[in-house]
Automatic annotation (TrEMBL):
Deacetylase sirtuin-type domain: residues covered: 1-233
Protein's recorded name: NAD-dependent protein deacylase
Residues annotated as binding NAD(+): Q92, N93, I94, D95, G176, T177, S178, A219
Catalyses which reaction(s): N(6)-acetyl-L-lysyl-[protein] + NAD(+) + H2O = 2''-O-acetyl-ADP-D-ribose + nicotinamide + L-lysyl-[protein]; N(6)-succinyl-L-lysyl-[protein] + NAD(+) + H2O = 2''-O-succinyl-ADP-D-ribose + nicotinamide + L-lysyl-[protein]
Coiled-coil portions: none
Listed transmembrane segments: none
HAMAP family according to UniProt: Sirtuin_ClassIII
Functional description taken from the UniProt entry: NAD-dependent lysine deacetylase and desuccinylase that specifically removes acetyl and succinyl groups on target proteins. Modulates the activities of several proteins which are inactive in their acylated form.
Source lineage: Bacteria, Pseudomonadati, Pseudomonadota, Gammaproteobacteria, Oceanospirillales
This protein's record includes keyword NAD: yes
Length: 244
C-alpha cells in the first residue's frame, strides 16, 4: 500500500514545457493563434459553422504531438515518482508527453488530443492511436465525433478535481505557463498555507505573482535541477542557488 505521507509534489504545466519538445505553442508571437484565429478553429461556434476546418486543424496538431518526444523536464518528473515521491501532474496541455515519459498521475484540464469524443455524450471517448477524425466518423450513438479538447467558451469539467489535488500539495511547481488562462491560473490560490509555490519559466520574474518563488530557467534545465536536489535529500525544498 502506498504511503500517503510521502512528499506530495503537485505540478501544474503549460505549453512552455511542451514547446521544448517541438510542439508549437498557442499564445507566443509565432504561435498557433497567430496563424489560426481562435474564433475560427477553437470555439463551439466554429464547430457549428465549419466542422471540417476544425477537424483539419486538430488533425494537424495531432500529428505534431505524435512526432514530439518527452524532454528532460517530463522525464525528471517521472524519475522523481519512481524514486518514491508522490507526484500529481495537472496540465493545460492536450499532448501525452507526461504519460510517455512515465508519469502515472496526470490530469488533463483541457482534454487530450489523442482522443475523440461524442458530440452528444462527452463520456463516450475513443482513443486515436493513429490517424485523425473525419466528417462522418460517428460515436456508438450515431453522432459525429469531435476532438476531446475543451474549446474557448466551454466549461472545464476537471477543474474541481484539480482544486482538490492542489489542496493536498506539499509544494506546487508551476512550469511553462503564462498564468493567463482562467480558471486554471486560480489554482495557485488553493495551495495549503504552508506549501510553497514555485514558477519555472524563462520569464518567471515578469509572470510570477507575489509570494511565488521564481526560477528563471527553461523547463528542460530548471526542472531537472530541482529534481536532482529533491532526489538527493528526499524532501521538497527550494535551493536558493536556483532562485532568480
Amino acid at each position: 500500500m502506498a504511503d500517503d505521507r510521502r512528499p506530495h509534489l503537485v505540478v501544474f504545466t503549460g505549453s512552455g514545457i511542451s514547446a521544448e519538445s517541438g510542439i508549437q505553442t498557442f499564445r507566443a508571437g509565432d504561435g498557433l493563434w497567430a496563424e489560426h484565429p481562435i474564433e475560427e478553429v477553437a470555439t463551439p461556434e466554429a464547430w457549428r459553422r465549419d466542422p471540417a476546418r476544425v477537424l483539419q486543424f486538430y488533425n494537424l496538431r495531432r500529428e505534431q504531438v505524435r512526432r514530439a518526444r518527452p524532454n528532460a523536464a517530463h522525464k525528471a518528473f517521472a524519475a522523481l515518482e519512481q524514486q518514491g515521491f508522490r507526484v500529481s501532474i495537472i496540465t493545460q496541455n492536450i499532448d501525452d508527453l507526461h504519460e510517455r515519459a512515465g508519469s502515472r498521475s496526470v490530469l488533463h484540464l483541457h482534454g487530450e488530443i489523442l482522443k475523440a469524443r461524442s458530440t452528444v455524450d462527452a463520456r463516450m471517448q475513443y482513443p486515436l492511436p493513429r490517424g485523425g477524425i473525419a466528417l462522418g466518423d460517428i460515436c456508438d450513438k450515431g453522432s459525429q465525433l469531435r476532438p476531446d479538447v475543451v474549446w474557448f467558451g466551454e466549461a472545464v469539467p476537471h477543474f474541481p478535481d484539480a482544486c482538490e489535488i492542489v489542496g493536498e500539495a506539499d509544494l506546487l511547481l508551476v512550469v511553462g505557463t503564462s498564468l493567463a488562462v482562467m480558471p486554471a491560473a486560480s489554482l495557485l490560490e488553493l495551495t495549503p498555507r504552508d506549501a510553497p509555490s514555485v514558477l519555472v519559466d524563462p520569464e518567471a520574474e515578469a509572470l510570477a505573482p507575489p509570494g511565488v518563488t521564481r526560477i528563471s530557467l527553461p523547463a528542460g534545465k530548471g526542472v531537472p535541477a530541482l529534481v536532482r536536489h529533491w532526489q538527493r535529500e528526499g524532501r521538497l525544498w527550494v535551493p536558493q542557488t536556483l532562485v532568480g
